[in-house]
Amino acid sequence: MFENSSNSFIKKHLSKDIFDKLKTKKTKSGFTLYHAIKSGIENPDSSVGIYAGDKETYEEFFEIFNPVISDYHSFKLTNFHKSDFSVPDLSNPDPEKKYIISTRIRVARNLEKLPFTTNTSLKERKEVEKKAVKAFELLDNDLSGNFFSFKTISDSQQRSFSQNHIGFNKGDRFQESAGINRDWPDARGIFISNNENFIVWINEEDHLRVISMQKNGDISETFNRLSRGIAILEKNLKFAFDDHLGYLTACPSNLGTAMRASVHIRLPNLQKKKNLLEDIAEKYNLQIRGTHGEKTEVKGAVFDISNRQRLGITEKECIKALHKGICTIVNLEKALPPL
Ligand code: ADP
Ligand code: CIR
């Protein structure tokens, strides 16, 4: 079923016994094992290779999701996941703006009662959009802004949003195989605050991606805005949450806080010493991505560096972990002899 070359978590954990046990199961919204693993089969270079179709997937297909989640997140299911959005007072690691171009913190959220983007009908996708747009009416002061539907804006405007790191494009081949791109661009869009610091993506990989971003290294201020925005959205929207797995997401890699806090940081010296950068990332549990996000290249020595751990850690702890690692990286970049 999986190519020999595949090193994915799904290939590692899907034994014949588990496959036979789960192959005829279905969630109430019709999601099957085949749907869950299709992306991993069609893309042998997947790292995870499995997606959930709804909240129920995590219970119905427990026998495969549990080992993948425990292994990926180094997390035992006897552990509990707790949320804490209180804002720590952290120093800016780069007050002179020499290295950090921008900070972005996002969380993924799914509406509890509707199938996830992998498994939603067009009608349900539109329902997500409608509910979210209604909730945006509550955003006020610095969070107030406008919703841009991808059905009504031009293709070039939509692509320009994503080139400027504000918006998103149609999903990649991993998401295509998982069914996430169906009915594109229907019921997709983004809410953008007037100051462009608070953004919500609708129906990308998850129902909502709630994002706070700004053009400096002030992690606390960025997190404070996210914390306020989420609290307002939660007044109108009920998100899928589990005491063990935290916020439930389409890709199990995002479970827990569903948070990715990142900086775009220019590191010309460390780019020449990739091993050193990789060692620090490992030590501080950070993930390095390319300039345009997951599975993209690093351009102009601009790295996207973010927290790796999401499950079994609070949002506040994620932020503190990122801050600690980035302070170390900035100090090292400064200490290296110039090119
Ligand atoms: P996600 O973070 O939503 O999991 P991606 O890795 O694809 O997904 O990143 C989404 C977008 O956010 C990309 O355009 C990426 O360049 C942008 N991005 C990520 N971190 C930052 C940052 N610190 N500043 C500006 N843009 C960022
Ligand atoms: C993979 O398995 O490599 C892809 N399905 C992506 C996994 C992690 N990233 C994500 O969900 N955004």
Describe what you observe in this structure.
It is built from twelve helices and ten strands. The strands form two sheets. It has an eight-stranded antiparallel sheet. Strands 6-7 form a two-stranded antiparallel sheet. It is globular. The termini are far apart. A hairpin with a 4-residue loop joins strand 3 and strand 4. With 339 residues, the chain is an alpha+beta fold. It binds adenosine-5'-diphosphate and citrulline (CIR).
Helix count, DSSP H or I runs of 4 or more residues: 12
The strand order across the widest sheet is 2-3-4-5-1-8-10-9
Distance between the termini: 48 Å
Q: Work out the helicity level.
A: 25-40%
Rg from Cα = 20 Å
SS strand fraction: 15-25%
Q: Which small compounds were modeled alongside the protein?
A: adenosine-5'-diphosphate, citrulline
Mean pLDDT: 96
- How would you describe the shape? globular
* SS elements, strand count: 10
Poorly predicted runs are: none
Q: Structural class of the helix and strand makeup?
A: alpha+beta
| Largest sheet entry | 8 strands, antiparallel
Order of helices and strands: HHHHHEHEHHEEEHEEEHHEEH
Give a short overview.
The chain has 339 residues and is of the alpha+beta class. The protein contains twelve helices and ten strands.
Q: What is the fold's blueprint, element by element?
A:
Elements lengths: L8 H5 L2 H7 L10 H10 L14 H4 L1 H12 L26 E10 L12 H15 L8 E5 L5 H9 L9 H6 L10 E5 L4 E5 L5 E7 L4 H15 L7 E2 L3 E2 L11 E8 L1 H4 L2 H10 L2 E4 L12 E6 L7 H21 L4
Antiparallel strand pairs: 1-5, 1-8, 2-3, 3-4, 4-5, 6-7, 8-10, 9-10
The chain binds adenosine-5'-diphosphate (ADP) and citrulline (CIR).
Adenosine-5'-diphosphate (ADP) binds next to strand 1, strand 5 and strand 8.
